[in-house]
């Protein structure tokens, strides 16, 4: 066999293997989708039914009454949006200062902030809880919003990396023109690093939206829960009644926003992840 | 990690502009700095102090010296949780191995690469809570997807999450499934940055595929492997959501409980916040040591910020 031919055969075999792998990756999610539109007889059918004998979308109406799903989405949106919008602003402003402005001991301060990455959240959650408990903030969204809006060191880190490659001349020129430092940030830096900010923004938004540990510590009342806690409660409540279509429908609703965001921005997300990993 | 000194050649002139610039810079970094002091540094020291006290979270903190640490040494639940946490990290090498193979497959420029990338990445962006709900259902002994699949090839699957022997493998499989796309993506990016001529030169020298892998590919992706091992260990040490949703009681005979699950139970269920702080300090130390060992073993990988 010629080398070209051999490569072609190998490529086809790999294609088949990758496709089989892809089926394994996607099958559980398709199963979820299919269960959510099944009638009870199909849910417990043996052998399994992948395509329901009759599509039943009633669970997608039922879920809104079955638990505080709507308020869960609202709460998750409030938290995720306020955290990422304010936090991205504070983070990029700090990244600009760390990368481009002169300040005594600025690298020492940066290293200090970086040390936060080595301390896991579970090691901080008890004192944080006691702080917010004495402020009377338990069972409000505030403990989930306030700490991160001061900035995210991971984002500061990546934007600083990105900014270091921006030539100083651009900034020096603006300084000589007498532009204020905030003006430089707003009019020169932000447009330059917009793609990097956007990528970090999306990744952060996803992380906050999917967070579970912090919300479960602070939130108790049904109307305060985030969407993740709501579906966990759905699971605990309705599994006893074996109402799996209902549980799966609610879980699909919880998955969907991130899935849509991912599919729209997949190119940017995948690129920024790849860059962040390679640069370490 | 170390920050290389930025080489500002000119000495800081104490001009008006310099002063203004410093003030502006300070204001710009103030928010993260204040946030760090209030929400990281203060809680960090508070945790250490609380770990030496008997405290229910509300009342006074009674200093008890190293009592909590002594108690921890003979705490069977903690030992179990620690064992489980490390055991479930067995998924890390499995996941890295699979993802490297996948990445090498995707690196050949076969049609559909983008689609594959997206499909493999979907579990990564999916909410862990929803995924846990889904897998709990998939692991159902009677009607779950996993056992239905196994019955096709004549295997009578167990009730995965109710069985001490299968609950950890079940969680490992799910964790590997969820994280595969992420590692694969990083490996793929690393592979794409390997210059083609390395392989061409090796071909000319008559090196076979395995030798090429051993002497070119593996060394070239080593920094990524290192990064993934570290982040996976740090993440794995904090496993919580899956356990909380899939095995709310910690699994049969506590065989699925992780350290963070145990800390959470102690702190917010039993209100033993002093003891829970001790556990959390130990967790922090373990993560710190693991990170340190990895850095020592891999001092060739430079993590310079520049």
TrEMBL record, chain A:
Task: Quote the subcellular location field of this record.
Answer: Cell membrane
Q: Does the keyword NADP apply?
A: no
Q: Where is the ABC transmembrane type-1 domain?
A: 73-265
Q: What is its main location?
A: membrane
Which keywords label this protein?
A: Cell membrane, Membrane, Transmembrane, Transmembrane helix, Transport
InterPro entries, per the entry: MetI-like, MetI-like_sf
Known Gene3D superfamilies for this protein? MetI-like
Parts of the chain that traverse the membrane: 12-33, 77-98, 110-129, 141-163, 184-209, 244-265
* One Pfam match: BPD_transp_1
In terms of SUPFAM superfamilies, this protein maps to: MetI-like
Per the record, membrane topology reads: Multi-pass membrane protein
Q: CDD domains, from UniProt?
A: TM_PBP2
Q: Which family does it belong to?
A: Belongs to the binding-protein-dependent transport system permease family.
Q: What is this protein called?
A: Carbohydrate ABC transporter permease
Automatic annotation (TrEMBL), chain B:
Pfam (any one): BPD_transp_1
Q: Which residues cross the membrane?
A: 23-45, 81-106, 118-138, 170-190, 273-295
The family database entries (InterPro entries) matched by this protein are listed as: ABC_transporter_permease, MetI-like, MetI-like_sf
| Lipid bilayer topology | Multi-pass membrane protein
Q: Which UniProt keywords apply?
A: Cell membrane, Membrane, Transmembrane, Transmembrane helix, Transport
Compartments, record wording? Cell membrane
Q: Where is the ABC transmembrane type-1 domain?
A: 77-294
Protein family according to the UniProt entry: Belongs to the binding-protein-dependent transport system permease family.
Protein name as catalogued:
Carbohydrate ABC transporter permease
Q: To which species is this protein native?
A: Gracilibacillus marinus
